[in-house]
């Protein structure tokens, strides 16, 4: 009970599910127990005996520990404003556990930006031949929008919005970045274009130059 194990998720954990991670943690705990037991046997062989007096006082009350040994913790209680667009660029792949019910319904979306969580997306949003030929889409960029993230799940839920194209090409990469930051890059409407000078070439009139500061 005095051992704290920290774990970090990676793509393998996402594909195998939470049960896989729990098995890994269980194995780690068993290894720690075995190591402790072996050290105790080794101490007995060498003739080193420890008594309760040698162990010294054990501090079980965190209030008695110095501040440098304490880790401050907190929790989010309210979201004031959603700054992120909830859209991300990334790749899709099948889940590793083919026998699970989740494999039949969802695929895993891995964002290029690692600050964005991985997302379960419905297979219905994926290309029709994705399940039979997933390798054909291994380098294909997609836009995914997060729609939900349950408190008891390690991964968010989302929907695939668009296929951008091959990774590494300028146009798909640029469109993905603009979409993530919520930049409208669509063509200007005719109403907006009518606001521009129609008589070309257009030059600044002397009257405008007289009342403006020239920063050229």
Automatic annotation (TrEMBL):
<keyword id="KW-0479">Metal-binding</keyword>
<dbReference type="Pfam" id="PF17849">
    <property type="entry name" value="OB_Dis3"/>
</dbReference>
<dbReference type="GO" id="GO:0006402">
    <property type="term" value="P:mRNA catabolic process"/>
</dbReference>
<keyword id="KW-0694">RNA-binding</keyword>
<dbReference type="GO" id="GO:0010587">
    <property type="term" value="P:miRNA catabolic process"/>
</dbReference>
<feature type="region of interest" description="Disordered">
    <location>
        <begin position="42"/>
        <end position="61"/>
    </location>
</feature>
<keyword id="KW-0269">Exonuclease</keyword>
<dbReference type="InterPro" id="IPR050180">
    <property type="entry name" value="RNR_Ribonuclease"/>
</dbReference>
<keyword id="KW-0460">Magnesium</keyword>
<dbReference type="InterPro" id="IPR041505">
    <property type="entry name" value="Dis3_CSD2"/>
</dbReference>
<dbReference type="GO" id="GO:0000932">
    <property type="term" value="C:P-body"/>
</dbReference>
<dbReference type="InterPro" id="IPR012340">
    <property type="entry name" value="NA-bd_OB-fold"/>
</dbReference>
<keyword id="KW-0963">Cytoplasm</keyword>
<protein>
    <submittedName>
        <fullName>DI3L2 exonuclease</fullName>
    </submittedName>
</protein>
<feature type="compositionally biased region" description="Basic and acidic residues">
    <location>
        <begin position="51"/>
        <end position="61"/>
    </location>
</feature>
<dbReference type="GO" id="GO:0008266">
    <property type="term" value="F:poly(U) RNA binding"/>
</dbReference>
<keyword id="KW-0540">Nuclease</keyword>
<feature type="domain" description="CSD2">
    <location>
        <begin position="107"/>
        <end position="182"/>
    </location>
</feature>
<dbReference type="GO" id="GO:0000175">
    <property type="term" value="F:3'-5'-RNA exonuclease activity"/>
</dbReference>
<keyword id="KW-0378">Hydrolase</keyword>
<dbReference type="GO" id="GO:0046872">
    <property type="term" value="F:metal ion binding"/>
</dbReference>
């Amino acid at each position: 009970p005095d051992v704290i194990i920290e774990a970090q998720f990676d793509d393998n954990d996402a594909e195998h599910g939470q049960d896989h991670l729990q098995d890994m943690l269980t194995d780690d705990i068993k290894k720690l127990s075995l190591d402790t037991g072996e050290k105790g046997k080794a101490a007995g062989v060498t003739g080193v005996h420890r008594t309760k007096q040698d162990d010294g006082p054990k501090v079980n009350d965190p209030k008695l520990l110095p501040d440098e040994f304490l880790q401050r913790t907190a929790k989010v209680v309210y979201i004031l404003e959603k700054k992120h667009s909830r859209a991300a660029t990334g790749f899709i792949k099948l889940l590793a556990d083919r026998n699970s019910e989740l494999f039949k319904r969802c695929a895993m979306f891995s964002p290029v930006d690692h600050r964005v969580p991985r997302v379960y997306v419905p297979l219905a949003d994926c290309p029709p031949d994705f399940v039979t030929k997933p390798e054909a889409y291994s380098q294909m960029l997609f836009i995914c929008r997060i729609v939900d993230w349950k408190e008891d799940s390690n991964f968010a839920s989302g929907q695939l919005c668009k296929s951008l194209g091959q990774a590494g090409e300028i146009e798909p990469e640029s469109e993905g970045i603009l979409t993530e930051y919520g930049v409208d890059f669509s063509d200007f409407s005719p109403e907006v274009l009518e606001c521009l000078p129609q008589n070309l070439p257009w030059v600044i009139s002397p009257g405008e130059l007289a009342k403006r500061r020239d920063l050229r």
